[in-house]
Amino acid sequence: MIRFILADLRRLWAGAVVVVLLVALATALGVTVTLQERALRLGSARAADKFDLVIGAAGSETQLVLSSIFLQPAPLPLMPGGVLAKLSKDPRVTWVAPVGFGDSFAGYPLVGTTRALIGSTVSGFAAGRMFEREGEAVIGAAVKLSVGAEIKPMHGTAQMGGETHAGVVYHVTGKLPPTGTPWDRAILVPIQAVWHVHGLGHDHEHEEEEHHEGEALQVTQAAAADEHGHTPLEATREHAGDLRHEGEAAEAGGHDEHADEDHDHHGAIDADASIDENFAADAPGLPAVLVKPKTIADAYKLRQEYRNGNTLAVFPGEVLTSLYVTLGDARMVLSAVAAGSQGLVAAALVLVTVTHIGQRRRQIGALRAFGAPRLSVFAIVWLELFLLVAVGIGLGFLTGLAAARLIADAFTVRSGIILPVGFTGEDWRMALILLGAAAVLSAVPAILAYRQSPAAALRA
To answer: I need a labelling partner for 455 at 20 to 30 A (CA). Which of 224, 289, 368, 383 fits?
Structure first.
């Protein structure tokens, strides 16, 4: 029987190949959609797993999570730096880390943060050490640089027409191990360096120095006043306040001619300056803060406390759940399209096979005339079609797996998120269901062959 089927398939190889390809393509579409949607859910959940709470300015919850955790470039409103100072002293918080972004280098995002974030989310370094100075940087595992490399940051990205910050250079001191998250493609620098590059944060550092200078000059300046009645020291402080407001306006996206003229002056860092992570209430504004609460109860209390008109606190898992709902809706649509295509392929196969059985009536009649039992004829016709459909289903699963992995690899290169593509028990159950449907489908032409009488077939 098997030799007869193989001989028949060799004789009709072109039609057999068409049947296999039709079934494979229809199956591969559904498999690709299922594997990719599942991989995206698992990969994004793993990427956000280490971050319990995100706090930012009032706005979009989704954009806050996408920008602060998945490092997707987008303009976020700034919240007051006092929020960071308050959280850093909150007894309910294990660690808190600001996140500042907006610059890039060679296509990699520059993220300003603290040593607490790095030390709490990764175990050790693949090479080098933590940054200790304002002009030092730590890179993710996927950044194609080595320890000791120089980084000259660019405002924005090259695609957006950004310009390189003049005179600002970071030196790579360490490289992190792979994490399978977007942070593998990030360049991490001290948050105070990000502030200084954009002309923020200097006033607080020089406040004490100005205070001592004021005491030394108090007597000599008491009698001196400008035409507006201000002492020189008061005028100097007024001018410093003006510069501070200009810098904050520029960071928030505003445009000021004086700020443009003094861009090089304000966009500077002291590469050898020590890092100060004791944040004061007058710290510059920032787009987001990542918080690690001590307990689950503390997490919910902090979330409730900072969900007000000025700030927004979210659990990344909740935001991702809402995204998964949207993703699930899209999957349902694509799965319906795949099911529809599979149904059309099944109908076409039945039509072609029934027509083929009609053309083979003489062959079937000859088999019956030579003594082949009805069940043998049924088995030959059924097994021949079932083998073709089964091979197509198997090839479709392999093609779908390959397509899903190609898509996942391309997504990882762009985002840094590793998508785990692979089969699960659910997929094997689906394969058994498809094989069961193929068995039923193959029985239709086999029943027609079974019911034919030898005499009627030979007279046809």
So the answer is: 383
Name the phi and psi angles at 4, rounded to 5: -65, -45
Annotate 123-188 with DSSP letters as a single string.
-S-SEE----BTTEEEE-TTS---TT-EE--EES-TTTT--BPTT--EEEEEEPPP-SSGGGG-EE
φ/ψ bin of 116: left (φ > 0), alpha (ψ from -120 to 50), beta (otherwise): alpha
**CA separation for the pair 125, 115 (Å, rounded):** 13
Per-residue confidence (pLDDT) for residue 308, from 0 to 100: 85
CA distances from 321 to 34, 62, 65, 302, 332 (A): 18, 11, 12, 20, 16
- The residues pairing with 136 across neighbouring beta strands, listed in sequence order, are 171
Q: Is 287 helix (H, G, I), strand (E, B) or coil?
A: coil
Q: What predicted TM-score, i.e. pTM, was given to this entire model?
A: 0.71
CA distances from 102 to 184, 194, 248, 314, 360 (A): 17, 9, 14, 22, 71
Please give the Cα distance from 135 to 151 (Å, whole number). 10
CA-based angle 15:19:22, to the nearest 5? 135
CB atoms within 10 A of CB 159: 9
154 with 162: CB under 8 angstroms?
Answer: yes
- Residue 312 has, within 13 A of its CA and on its CB side, a CA count of 20
In a 3-state reduction of DSSP, which class is residue 54? strand
CB 435 within 8 A of CB 390: yes
Tokens 């793993």 found at: 46
CA gap 35, 385 in Å, rounded: 28
CA distances from 255 to 197, 209, 251, 326 (A): 16, 30, 9, 38
CA distance 140 to 46: 17
| Res 451: pLDDT | 59
Residue-wise burial string across 35-49, b where 16 or more C-beta atoms lie within 10 A, e elsewhere? bbbbbbbbbbebbbe
What pLDDT is recorded for position 247? 42
Note the maximum CA span of the chain: 130
Mean pLDDT by 10 residues, the chain (460 residues): 63 78 88 89 89 92 91 86 91 93 88 91 91 93 92 77 79 93 93 86 48 38 39 40 41 39 56 87 89 94 90 91 78 75 74 63 57 67 83 92 94 87 90 87 70 54
Q: CA–CA separation, 248 vs 36, rounded Å? A: 43
pLDDT of residue 206: 46
